[in-house]
Amino acid sequence: MRIKALFILLLSLLFANITQANNEKTTVRVGISNQAFSSWDYRNIKLTSSDIVKIIAMKDTNAQEQPENIEPNKIIEVVLNEGLYNIYVDGELKYEKLASPLVFSSNSDLQILELNRKGIPARYKGMLEIKDSKTPNRFNLINVVDMENYLRGVVPNEMPVSFGQEALKAQAIAARNYATNANIDSNYDVVDSTASQVYYGANSYRDISDKAVLETKGIYALYNEKPITALYFSTSAGITDDWDDVFASNQNKGSHPYLKAKIDKQGQKFITSEKDAIDFINSKNGLDTNSPKFRWNIEFERRELEEILHTTLQQQSKAGLVTPKYDGDNKIEGLKEIKVLKRTKSSKVVELLITAKTGEYKVSKDLGIRRVLKKNNSMLPSGNFYIETIGEETTETKVEEEEENNQSIVDKIGNLKLFSYINQETYPKTFRFTGGGFGHGVGMSQFGAYNMAKMGKKYPQILHYYYTNINLSTYPKTVYFNEWNVHYKTEFYFDKNTYKSAYLLISNPKNVTGFPFKINNLDFNNTSSIVNNKLMKINITQYLNNGINLIDFAPLSKENKGKTITYRVELL
How many Cβ atoms from other residues are within 10 Å of residue 531's Cβ? Predict the structure, then answer.
C-alpha cells in the first residue's frame, strides 16, 4: 500500500512540475500554530473527519505494517515519542514507531480537536502533514492546501467582508501574490498568523469573500514578468511609503520599485520638515478617514514610560536597532526628551533619540521604534506621529549634610542628623504621541481600498494605484517538449464588466517553429504566421467567456526539443 501511494504521489508531483513551469504555486504549505499563535511546535495532536481518513507514512521504519484507512468520526491521536510517532484511534494504540513525515487526507474537512478557530474546532481542506520540527522532539503541523482554498481562509480574516467585492478582490490578488512569493521555513511556506497572513481554514469561509477569490482566479500583479511582493496594511495616514524608506538595507535598495509612496489627496505634498509632519497629522487629510486608526492619541506618564523602555530597549538592542546597545544594567531614569531625528516623505519616524538622565539611545527603523514605544503591551499603531510633553514634575535628591570641617553646616540633635535637598531637576510629567494610520504603511492600504471601492473604483484601479507600474496577468508559464504529452494549462477568470480586453503574450526567443494551443477548446493549430523572435501580442478578448477560461498549450514537438516558449495573458 505504501509503495502504491508513494508512486501516485511522486507521479502527481512530476506532472505538477511539468505543467507548472516557472514554479506557479498552486498549493500552499501552511504552518498551523497553537491556540495562542505563539508556537508552531507540537508533541501531540488529535484530529478527526466525517469521512474516511487516509494515512501515509512516507519513510520505512521497523514499524508494523503501513497504517490502514481510519473510519469516519474516529478520534485519531498522534503522539511523538523519542523521535518516532504512535497513532491512537479512540484511545487504542494502533500503530507505533512511525517516522516523519506522516500525511493525513480525507474527502471531508480534517478537524483538529483542542485547537479552536473562530470559536470552534479548527477545520482544514486538503491534507495535514506532520513533519519533524527543528526543535528536538517536536513536530510541525502543516496544512497542504490548494491556493484557492487557502485564499478562501485568508481574505475574510485579513479584510472585513463588509468592505465589499472590489476591495475584497484587490485583497485576494495581494494575498495570492504574497503566498506565491513566501517561503519562510523549510517545512512550510507561510504560517497562519499575522507573521504571514491570517488563515483560519474552512472555519472562516464566507460567500462574499469566496466570490472575490473565484472572480480573481489565476490573476497576479506582475512587475517585469514576476509576481510582486504585494505588501498591504490596515490604514494610511494620508501618504503611503516607499519600500526603500521603511524596509530596505544598503544591500537591497531599489529591489521593490513598484512599492512607491502615494499621496491620497490632491494638494498634499510629501513631508520635508518637522513642521510639515505636525501640520499633516493635524490636517486629517487622506482617503482613510473612516478608519478608527486614521488619527490617534496615546499618552504615557513619564515613570510608566521609563519602565516600558527598560524592557523594550533591551529587546530592540538584541535586534540591532538601538545605539548604543542597552543591556538594562543602568536602568532608564529621568526621561527628559524623545526627539525625532529622521522621517520619511510620509512623515513616518525612522530614527528617534531617547534622552534620559541615565543615558541617550538612538532607535532605528519603523518597526523598532514602534516596538520600543509600547502601551499595554501593544506597539504604536504606526510610525506617523509627533511628540509633545505635558506638565512638569520636579525630582529632589536627598543628601546627608557633611561635617563642619568639610566646610558645611552641621546641626545635630541627639542622634538625629539634618538633611539638605540638592540636585533638583525638572522632567516632563506626560509624553503624548499624536499620530495617524495603522501598520507599516507600504503598499496597499486596506481602508484606502475600501474607500476607493465606495467611490466606484474597480479592483484593477485600486491595485494600479497602490502598486506602481504593474500589470494584471496570469502567471508566466514556459512550454517545453515532454515525452508524456502533458499539456501546459492556465485557468483564469475574465470579467467583461471589469476589463475591456485580454492579450495572449507569447515570447519565442529560440524560433520555435510551431506551438499549437487552445483557448476554451478552440484550436489554434496554425501558428506559423505569428512565429518570430519577438514578443507576440494577440488580442483574444473575443474568445473568452465571462467567467473561468482555459488556455491549453500542447508540449513542443520533438523537433523543438531543448527550446521553449513562454506565455501569459494580460488583462487591460
Answer: 15
Q: Which residues touch 236 (CB under 8 Å, ≥6 apart)?
A: 264, 286, 287, 288, 437, 441, 445, 447, 448
Q: Which amino acid is at 388?
A: E
Phi, psi of 281 (to 5 degrees): -65, -35
Rounded distance between C-alpha atoms, residue 262 and residue 239, angstroms: 5
Per the structure block, which three cell numbers stand in for 468? Answer: 506602481
Strands 232-233 and 444-445: parallel
What distance in Å separates the CA atoms of residue 22 and residue 512, rounded to the nearest whole number?
19
Q: Which residue has the cell 484511545?
A: 91
Is residue 27 within 8 A of residue 147, CB to CB? The reply is: yes
- Cell numbers linked to 111: 478537524
How far apart CA 279 and CA 283 sit, in angstroms, is 6
Cα–Cα distance between 460 and 260 in angstroms, integer? 17
Residues of the chain with pLDDT under 70: 1-22, 60-65, 396-423, 526-533
d(CA 170, CA 450): 10
Q: Which residues of 282-313 are buried (b: 16+ CB within 10 A; e: fewer)?
A: eeebbbbbebebbbbebebebeebbebbbebb
- Residue in the structure block whose three cell numbers are 500554530: 33
Q: Within its chain, how far is the Cα of 523 from the centroid?
A: 41
Rounded to whole angstroms, how far apart are CA atoms 191 and 183? 10
- Rounded CA separation 5/96 (Å): 20
User: Running DSSP on this structure, what letter comes out for residue 555?
Assistant: P
| Rounded distance between C-alpha atoms, residue 136 and residue 326, angstroms | 32
**What is the crossing angle of helices 207-214 and 165-181, to 10°?**
60
CA 248 to chain centroid? 17
Q: Which residues of 389-400 are buried (b: 16+ CB within 10 A; e: fewer)?
A: beeeeeeeeeee
Which of the 8 DSSP states describes residue 82? T
Q: Give every CB contact of residue 65 below 8 A, 6+ residues apart in sequence.
A: none
CA torsion sign for 221, 222, 227, 233 is: negative
Environment class of residue 456 by beta-carbon count within 10 Å: exposed (0-12), middle (13-18) or buried (19+)?
exposed
pLDDT digits (tens, 9 = 90+) for 495-552: 999 999 999 999 998 888 889 999 999 999 866 555 555 778 999 999 999 999 999 9
Summarised one tens digit per residue, pLDDT across range 241-270 is 999 999 988 888 999 999 999 999 988 999
Burial of 455 (0-12, 13-18, 19+ CB in 10 A): exposed
Which residue(s) pair with 79 in the sheet? 44, 86
